[in-house]
Amino acid sequence: MMLLSKIKLTINKHRMLSPGDRVVVAVSGGPDSVCMLRALLAFMSEYELTLHVAHLDHRFRGEESAAEAQFVRGLAARLGLPATIEASDVPAYCRERGLSAQAGAREVRYAFLQEVAKREHAARIALGHTANDQAETLLMRLIRGAGAAGLASIPPVRENIIRPLIDVTREEVLAYLKEHGQDFITDPSNLKPFYTRNRVRLEVLPVLERFNPRIVEALATAAEVLRDENAAMEASLAAVIDRTVRQDGKAVRIARTEFFDLLPALRRRVLRKALALSSGEEAPGLSSVQTDEALAFMAETQTGRMMELPGGLSLEREYDSFLIRQRERVDELSIPLAVPGRTEVPGTGLQVEVQVCEILERDDGIPSRRGTGDDDEGSFDENYLWQAQFDYDKIVLPLSLRSRRVGDWFCPAGMEGKSKKLQDYFVDEKVPRFRRAAVPLLTTEQDLVWIVGMRTDGRYLPGPKTKKLLTVRVRRAR
Length: 478
Hints:
Blueprint: H1 2-13, E1 22-26, H2 31-42, H3 44-47, E2 50-57, H4 63-79, E3 83-87, H5 90-97, H6 101-119, E4 124-126, H7 131-143, H8 148-151, E5 157-158, E6 161-162, H9 170-179, H10 196-211, H11 215-244, E7 245-248, E8 251-255, H12 256-260, H13 264-279, H14 288-300, E9 306-309, E10 313-317, E11 321-326, E12 334-336, E13 341-345, E14 350-361, E15 367-371, E16 386-391, E17 400-402, E18 409-410, E19 420-421, H15 422-428, H16 433-436, E20 441-443, E21 448-451, E22 455-456, E23 468-476
Parallel strand pairs: 1-2, 1-4, 2-3, 4-6
Antiparallel strand pairs: 5-6, 7-8, 8-11, 9-10, 10-11, 12-17, 13-14, 14-15, 14-23, 16-23, 17-20, 18-19, 20-21, 21-22
């Protein structure tokens, strides 16, 4: 009866059940799930429960799996409970999706249980995880370098999933079943050190028990403490996230000053929350080591620097913030331009029009223009996105529109012929690193003439001695 009291304490502590609940009980046939079924059966009257047994044959072990399904069917019948016993070709499911046996089985099993719960109008699905499962999970995640959220391990309640045996050890389960003469199925695969969990169970825990005979309870308690502290951290995160992180189109922006005002533990969570928002995932695929690397980058990097992250994401330093976004692949652009004429620029949605105008001096001394193209006056047109004029005789054809290259430089207009590296210009103008490759450049074979939409090279601008004007206009392609 001690075990039932312990389970009841867990149920009440975590508010797992309410009077009148319909509960789907996941029964594999192993000792844990059979013990859980017997315990819930004992609480049926007190909680006014309606129980429904559910079992899925994964078809991993042929006749053995079929025998387990038959055992559960018989057990439910002897206890007078309705049951849903089904089979699924999980090996084929795993092959089709490239999943491990454990991951694929978990997906199929949970989908099956949710479907049964929906069909039976059940408020809860009961799983038979024990304190041993909790301890094993904590050790596995500790070995992999998980943080506090991961080390919190298996939650007693998650949405409609409950785990009434989460505070009970496997030894207590076996003792209870023996006391009541209840048989069960032993899965032989649990005794083979093929999977990480089995190796932790069979090799690691026995060694730790030499130092602490109650290591399972100690680890399960540690997981519970970590779970409570994780909940407190999540509450702290909720209080600061709105002033630290915001959506910026398809990207996510982290305010730099507010971010570094936080304690290190909250910085980690803010970063992971921002990554989750950017990737659209509940849990971003960033290990604790990768998280620390990203935090170190944020602490030390200069404006304009970028760090690649898993999942096709990038983390980039701007002047007062960090930007997380999907990395965009920008193909190198190099398109020769018709002079004069119009040129469509593939992949950009842009059209470039080049016009050449001869400057003539009238009898009254006022210069006029005669040129080629649709607009003989060469005047600027507000229908274009960007436009610029140059001294035609200073430019050596051919002209091209291309993306940046290593070593690009120019002499910005207004700087009296002083040269400047394109990279330095982008930094000074606060052009985000990820946008720089997409900025089109007007060039000759030797020189950069115009950073389109931004700055011209002063060496090529028209002056008092200009005889011909070269007008370049960029607009959206029709």
